[in-house]
Amino acid sequence: MSTPYRDMVKRGLDLLLDTVNNNAVQQQSKASDTATVSSSADQQLIDLLKTNNHTLAEETYQLLKDRLGHLPASLLGLQTYCQSLLPQIVAEWKQVIVTPFANSQSPSVQRQDKLTFLLHAVKSDDWNAKYQALSQLVEFHDVLFADSTLFDDLFDFAEDAQSSNERYRSWQLLVDALTSYQFINKNTLEGHLKSSFDTATAEQVANEAHLRLLALLDDPHINKPKQFIYWDIADLRNTNLVAPLLQRLESLFEHTPQKNKEERKYLFDTLVKISGYDQNIEDYLEEREDTRWLQRQHPRDSQVLLSLFTTLMNHSDYALAAQLLPSLAWVQSGDSDLSSRIDTALALAYEQMPANHTFKLVEALAYRAKRRHGSIASLQNALRNKDADVQFAAAEGLAKCGHADGVNILMATIDYNPDAEFRSCSVLAIGELLGSNNNQNADSPNASSPADNADKNLQVHTLYKAYDKLIKLAEDDEHYLQDVASEALGRLAQGGDFEHSPHIFELLKSHLSDPAVHFTNPAIVHWLNGLRCSTQRLLGNKSAAISALISIKPYSSVHKGMRYGYCR
User: What does pLDDT average to in each consecutive run of 10 residues of the chain (568 residues)?
Assistant: First the structure.
């Protein structure tokens, strides 16, 4: 049986069992006493299982499994001296599929057998066998989060790893176990967990384990780089870690800030991920009716984002703070207090941030003024900024809110700014500003009454000055601003109230009816938007406007396919 040839080992074991059975039968007073015979044979196999010969140990284990069953044979297999067999025995249990929580979908006997074996196997001195056992145990969420025992084993296992391969695999296993709490939290929120599962204990166990991971940042004996530990902390997305992380960030600012610059960036990335704002905001301009993309993402915690921004501003780390501006501007919140604090933080940032971040900040202020009904005071202040680009951003933001304070800046941008995008945006902003004269949004706190607009903002000479400029651009087939000027004129037409509305309407129709224009021309979208705006107000509702537009060939199908136009 010591031969390396498997067929000979099998034959030798068969002969051994036959011999044992024959001897046992001869020694019994009753030949029918098969229990003693079987026991004697099993003992012989158990003794052989302790051999260090892999082939012999493996074949012996298979015989015991057939004779005694999977669980008893596996428990006996843990006693083998054959180190290569141990991981194999443990890995076999992967084939027994169980659910994270005990329920009817997972037979209780199989689940309990697997759990019983793994709790014994995890005590093995063999690294691979212990790894296999732990990797399967963490799938039992009701056991993993029942108390800290299993997490203690996982931490010790990772900290004691020797080779680089062992360190990688053990740390990954630990992180997978730590992040699995997200599964529990999600199922708790959705009401999918059985009432017998103690969610309060699970949360406590998870938080204690997460804090232990955080504490490893200051453990000099840990051979894992801090950057990787921060990545692992970020993956937890546990808002309970925000307070100690912010405290750590404060401490790094106070003690040799230049030396800790790299770690501050790690902390920054970690807190951003915990806030949920590491995820792409797919519909930043909120042009879609379908918001299911939000449901597919992790929840966002805007308070964490604001706290991080405030901390960075308090310590004058403007470079990192500026990275948060687009997300901070977008924040959606039904909490008026939080929205107010965000607006206040952005307003204070305008007074504090250096010039190289002002443009990005003004864009954020403009976004909130338009879409979150934020204050326009900082935008009005920005009109006096020395930087022409900042002036433009402020003027555009005010125009989209129905305020003409910066209309002269927009006019000058069209004529003199070398940036083609700025010039196009200025044209569209003027159209939106003047077109809103008779279509103010009464719900917006930034919107003035029509009378106020007539007296203060939208003077008659401004209207005609804008018309003269836009009509020249729209009639110039060689000018690259023709398309956006046409769209702006559609707004300016004011549904027929403006005396030049008929001319504007005919101009837009002529653009679309030109047989030389190919249907893939990007200008078509702007022409259609302009025509839709003017027609919609003229006919009184969107459906009537679309009915009028579909008569224009060959672009009717293009327009019907447009769900979101500039004129909303």
Answer: 68 67 57 56 80 81 87 92 90 89 70 94 94 94 92 95 93 95 78 73 94 94 92 96 97 83 96 97 93 93 98 96 98 90 96 96 97 94 95 95 91 92 93 69 46 51 82 88 88 70 81 75 79 62 48 45 37
Pairwise CA distance, residues 118 & 94, whole Å? 11
The Cα-based distances of 366 to 228, 420, 437 in angstroms read 38, 20, 19
Q: Could you tell me which of 447, 434, 460, 459 has the C-alpha nearest to residue 533?
A: 434
Cβ neighbours of residue 40 closer than 8 Å, sequence gap 6 or more: 20, 21, 23, 24
Closest to 534 measured CA to CA, from 515, 561, 563, 507: 507
C-alpha R_g of the chain: 36
Check if the beta carbon of residue 275 is closer than 8 Å to that of residue 302: yes
Q: 71, 76, 68: which is closest to 49 by C-alpha?
A: 76
**Cis bond before residue 515 (omega within 30° of 0):** no
Nearest-angstrom CA–CA distance, 317 and 342: 18
User: Percent helix, strand, coil in the chain (nearest 5)?
Assistant: 70, 0, 30
Its sign, for the CA torsion 484, 488, 493, 499, is: negative
- Compute the CA torsion angle 105, 110, 114, 115 (nearest 10 deg): 70
